[in-house]
Amino acid sequence: MGASLRRSRFQSMHSTSRTLTARRIALSLLSLPLVTALLLPQTAAADELAVPRTAPLLVNSSNGDHWLGNTPNVAINGEGLLMAAWTDGNAHGSLDDWSTAVAGQLVTQEGVLSGPNFVINENNKHEQGFVRLAVTASDGFVATYNTRTLDGNGSLGVGQRYVLSGQGEFGANTFTDREQVAATVATSRNGSEVVTWQSKHLDPYRWEIFASLNGGLEFRVSSDLDGDNHARVAMDPEGNFAIVWQRKGDLIMRSYDASGAPLTDERVANPVVSYTQRDPEIAALPTGGYLVVWEDDSTPNRRMQIMGRVFDTNGDALSDRFTISDIPEDHAVDAAVAADPNGRAVVSWTHNPEIRVRLIDTETLTLGPVFDTGVMSQVQQGSSAVAMGDADEFAVAWRAVDDVGKIYVRQYDIVSQ
Question: Which of 342, 379, 404, 413 is least enclosed, having the fewest CB within 10 Å?
């Protein structure tokens, strides 16, 4: 049996008595010309600030000698219910020295754990990991992850989906030969869902990018067998989607309409093609288009910085690249990005040993102040993830590495000054 990139659905089993309303409080606006022009970023005194709603909350409860929490992800549904998920080295109770699981935890809007940790994957032996979350149209959650099963060469491969209501797991793709890894998922409010991953299906030595839309047959995204990897996907409210990935030192992007028809050929997303651009992340914007962020060392001192760029639905650039991270003397890595229905985005990254965060008005490219998650500055932190809700809220999840890997979540409100 080949291994799998598994997709899992969780129907929301929690409701909150808190009334949620979405509102838009504009940041300082940049006057836009009437002719088409690239947006220019500006840093201004923000009219909105991120205010912690909760203290950092430890969400993984496993203890033991195993490699524990790693690579967390997070999502917030329309009711404000948060789901965190991560790779856990002890969730199966130390079944063997190589056993890892994909574990999850629900958290209320008030920052209270809703029930215990639970295991997402059905396969309870060997390696499962690299989980990514999205919210379904019915305010459930869908997860993709890698799983390793015993086959001839122990390769990672394509996955299945687990539904909390008991419908079982099923695969995202039809071929299971060779390695299929690093699945990511995006959804829209109209019920569409797209999964993308990297595969060695066509060549045992080089990666290419594949995707599947609404459970249909997989299709090839990348055109070259050139070591493509680190694919990420985002879907807008109408079901249009874009995939961005890394090819050597560049970032490649391709856009699709809601039927899966390509809107563009492959395009280089980074405007500077010298040095190294790597590890892209992407978020869909509420009015169409995308914000792409990445690590970039084409800076005067060759320090990695977090850059961003805005694109329209067709993949045409609406801005030049702009710098999001704030300390050019040091490296900034491991970016994550999410957007909300009100035109905002939040970006997090690692500036060792801290997790740093910044709000962005994506309509005007107004950059808010940078802040950190405010905890354990003496402990190395990394692998952050972000999610935004519908009601002026967002959350950051990250891993803190002391004696074991601990997964923390902190929830924030966006308020006017």
Answer: 379
Q: pTM for this structure?
A: 0.87
Whole-number Å distance between alpha carbons of 84 and 107: 8
CB neighbour class for 118 (10 Å; exposed up to 12, middle 13-18, buried from 19):
middle
Contacts by residues 375-378 (CB-CB < 8 Å, ≥ 24 positions apart): 375/55, 375/56, 375/400, 375/408, 375/410, 376/56, 376/400, 376/402, 377/353, 378/353
Question: Residue length, the chain?
Answer: 417
Q: Are 394 and 387 in contact, with CB atoms under 8 Å apart?
A: yes
Average pLDDT over residues 65-78: 80
For residue 330 the two structure tokens come to: 């040091």
Q: What is the DSSP letter of 329?
A: T
The dihedral built from the CA positions of residue 343, 30, 289 and 247, taken in this order, carries a sign that is negative
Distance CA 255, CA 240 (A): 8
How confident is the model over 1-18, as a mean pLDDT? 42
pLDDT of residue 404: 67
> Hey, which residues does 309 pair with through a beta bridge?
292
Alpha carbon of 260 to those of 212, 240, 257, 266, 329: distances in Å?
9, 8, 5, 15, 42
DSSP state of 270: -
Q: What is the CATH number of domain 4-12+37-416?
A: 2.120.10.30
Give me the residue spans of the domains in the chain: 4-12+37-416
Query: Which two three-digit tokens encode residue 269?
Result: 């997303």
* Cβ-based neighbour number of residue 339 at 10 Å: 25
Residues 172/19, Cβ–Cβ less than 8 Å: no
Q: Which stretches does DSSP call E strand in 59-187? A: 70-76, 82-88, 101-107, 113-119, 128-135, 141-148, 156-157, 161-163, 180-187
As a whole number of angstroms, the distance between CA 144 and CA 111 comes to 25
Query: Given pLDDT bands bounded at 50, 70 and 90, which one contains residue 13?
Result: very low
Q: Which residues contact 349 (CB under 8 A, 6 or more apart)?
A: 306, 324, 325, 332, 333, 334, 335, 336, 355, 356, 384
